[in-house]
Specification:
Helices cover about 10% and strands about 45% of the residues. By secondary structure, it is mainly beta. The longest helix is centred in the N-terminal third of the chain and has 7 residues. The N and C termini lie far apart (about 40 Å). It comes from Odoribacter laneus YIT 12061.
Length: about 120
């Protein structure tokens, strides 16, 4: 049996941009991506702390150490600049393997989105 478990989480970052006219996705500072073990094009869930919205999209790389967290395309309707979000990725694994799995959790500065 396979189950889905949390693989990575970027906990409480601030949305810096919302670009409705983009094709789609979320742009994340590559330094945050690397710290959280998230790769480009990986599927993520974004949970908006301010309004409770939960969306799924994929990741594209943003400029390193820029602090960028930009929701693009239709996702831009689900947040506003300044909203606090949590970004979560999941992995599918065997039940026994999942019992031993430890997710990568990153807690950057909420207001600058910089690693502490």
């Amino acid at each position: 049996m396979f189950i889905e478990v949390v693989k990575s989480k970027i906990h409480k970052v601030t949305v810096t941009e919302a670009n409705l006219q983009y094709v789609g996705s979320v742009t994340i500072d590559v330094a945050l991506m690397e710290a959280a073990n998230i790769i480009e094009n990986e599927k993520v869930q974004i949970v908006n702390v301010n309004n409770g919205e939960r969306i799924e999209t994929y990741v594209i790389k943003g400029e390193r150490n820029s602090g960028i967290v930009c929701l693009n395309g239709p996702a831009a309707r689900k947040c506003a600049v300044g909203d606090i979000v949590i970004i979560i990725s999941y992995a599918s694994m065997d039940f026994e393997e999942a019992k031993k799995h430890t997710p990568t959790l990153v807690f950057p500065d909420t207001f600058t989105n910089q690693l502490i």
